Model the fold of this input.
Amino acid sequence: MSEMPARLAATPRVRHFVSRVLMVIGLALVVVFFGLPLLWLVTAPFDSVPTLAVSWPEWTLSSFAAIGENRYAVGSFVNSAIIGVGTCAVVLVLGAFASYALSRVRIPGRDGLLYALLLLSSIVTGTAAMVPTFQLVNLLGLIDTHLAVVLVISGGTLPTVIFILKDFMDSIPKSYEESARLYGARPWQILRDVVVPISRPGLAFVAVWTLVQVWGNFLVPYLLIRRTEQQPAAVLMYTFYTESGQADLRLLSAFALIFSIPIIVMYFLVNRRYGFRFHGGIKS
Amino acid sequence: MAPALALIGLFLVFPALWTIYLGMTDYRLTGLQAVDPSFVGLDNYGRILGDPAFWRSLRLTLVFVLVSGIIGQSLLGFAIAWALRRLTGWLKSLIETLVLAAWVIPASVSSFLWIALLDRRGGTLNEILGTEGTAWLIEHPMAAIIIFNVWVGTAFSMLLFSSALAAVPPSQLESARMAGAGGWQQLRDVVIPNIRGHILTNTLLITLWTFNTFTPYLVTAGGPNGASEILAVYIYNTAIPGGQLGVGAAISLIMLLINLVIALGYLRVGRARQAKPADATAAETAGGVVKPS
Done:
């Protein structure tokens, strides 16, 4: 009888201790689960003889020379850059005009249109629409061109971009434009001298967001570009480990690291500036 | 505005509508039907619905979405957010950085990282477990892509739930604690009711994205023998290497319709929640408009 109260008193402390231990074990497992695959990416490129397994490297930078030795590697980064910058340009210019117009002009059903487009872009994903997209590009004679990839990705991301930019455009006070107009500014001057400077944070965000989307995009270029010289890094990376039997791990590891760094840098840059507000939007 | 709408129209609206027509032709990538396809009506659908490979793919997709998305990503993301909510310092930033890094590195890199990890001969996993020679990707392809997808996608749930948890009124938690509620009881009676809207949003978005992801193709390509051929991969394999564009378009339409149902569900939830606008965060609005590539 006399033992009971003592045990009751001890229970919360024991339970607290047990839950602490369980939490530490759980967090350790999380670190291992997420960290283990990533370890290879940071060790293998610096190992003189990289293997598939993670191991402490014999430090060297010689693997990075393998990128220069490969016929397509450097070119694929150029291709990725062309596609990325091209998509950025298309999306920024068209998105800025469209969102400005949507924000200023009163058309009946404007919001409805915007939501319909958004809904559509979340339904008609690259995966679900790959057959008609392929067929369309085929008919246009644009297979194996960067333009095709730029246009297809732009079409898919524009609704999101307009949605984000319209928020920024809405926040520009109309009085700024009105006073500019009073002083005789032309519409394009208002756009250039008033709207663009004020919405610059929004434009910058959209630019980075688009680059992140495009840089890692695999399916669209995989579907539309067959010639190796034209392929962006995302597709070439895949060819490295699926074709030609024995994969060259020196090339593969160094290439993977260089390919990943820009996106990680851009991501953490945006993360620092905008925080979670846009996390949902930043990565596909 | 017009050029933007034209581009959206050509590369987003038109493909969706065209899928309906293409799905009723015997279009092929090569051969006679590539030049002169004929209208076959609903034949493709009859063929698909009678094809066991389609049903297997649909079943695999269901398992994939349920286990890797709804259960795996959501629960793990919530658990991490819950564990990290009062933690500060290096451990918190280490975990957040790792989970985020898994999310942001390009798909073709992350899939190779997993191929290397699970490799039969030199893979790290076999070395750690001492199971030299186990070909995980051949023996357990579905388990492999499910775990892979949890690894890739947990970050979103973690981020969404940590912002949701931060918004739970501390006073309510405090009074629950005063009333003697333990961790589980606080979770059940205070936290979950408070973030119910976030849970719904998260579940619907994760469902949509997991259903549409093509990334598992990079790990197993649907193999061996279609054992991990989820719907997205099934469409690709049928239409492009298989050359049957018409049949591929017909399956695409089925996929589009499923997407529509999920998206309408999301919209419904969104509308119900607009009655309480304080709940909806910008994150969700932004999150709601993204799609997996």
Notes: The domain at 51-288 of chain B is CATH 1.10.3720.10 (MetI-like fold).
